Please model this.
Amino acid sequence: MSESESPKRGDKKTEQHDPQATAETGQTESGADAAPPQPPRNPWQSEPADPGLRRSAGLEQILRQRGQTRSASGLPKGWLGWALLGSLSAWLLSTSIHVLAQGESGVLTTLGRYEGKLEPGLNITMPWPFQSVTRSNLGGEMTTLLPDNDTETLMPTRDGELIDLRVQVRWRVSDLRAFSQTFPDGEAAIRRLTDSAIRAAAAEVGFDDLRGGKNRAQFQQRVADRLQRVLSAWKSGVSVVAVEVTGANPPARLADTFKAVNDANEAAAKNRETAQAYAKQVTLGAQAEAAAFDRAYALYRIAPDVTRQQIYYSTVEGVLRNNPVVIGNGPAASATAAPPPESKPAAEGR
Model:
């Protein structure tokens, strides 16, 4: 019996002193009842103690809610495609359909090469930049203002002064093809050439002549001739109708000084007119007196005694009229005579 029990006791001791085997056995036996592994906890979100309590929203949930709100209140889905489609349609319609009014003519170019002319009415071409149309009122007058805004344009004159010139140029296109080929930018080229011609002509005229209007017609004709020579040399198909100066002002920073000068000139002109009127009046009076003297001298030569007496009486009458003096003891004399001086008291005492 002792031999048979000894192995059993040894086995029990082995089972008691082998914790690893025990753990493996327990793990194998309780494998079906073991809990699933838990995910890592989000450090930015606090777990409520009670699952039934309401917990605060996390950062991801807040951003998700804001994104949904923005998409709901913003543009609908696919708006970018509709916008691109609208822009493409507007580009095609605006650059492919050309309506020319009566009296207008157009030049069609393909990649800068001349293709032909377009007549008034509806014309359909390829869109820009493949084809482009340059339109103009053929034969009609066009007006260009220099400058085209309220900015100051100072030009040097012959005497070294600066003046702000405002010019209006009227011109017409006689050959639209030549005009479009010579000046692709159209009126902008006419504006540049006109500005150059005005500056060259202003450098040949004095400041006072331009500002005061003296010889302004010659200045305008000089600008028109200079501009027409350049346009004809380039064979641009443009003819200048007229050039008109609409304003000639001093620099804006010297406006107060020139205003004072203008006021002084106006005062001097007014004084000059007053002096001339007075001189004319005095001259007329002197001429009347000289004529009267000539008539009196002619009468004197005919009858000297009668004329002498008449002159004497006229002279005495004029003197008495201007100096009322009464001679004699009449009532007028007693009324106008001064009373005699009273005697002094000292004389009466004597």
Remarks:
- The chain has a mean pLDDT of 76.
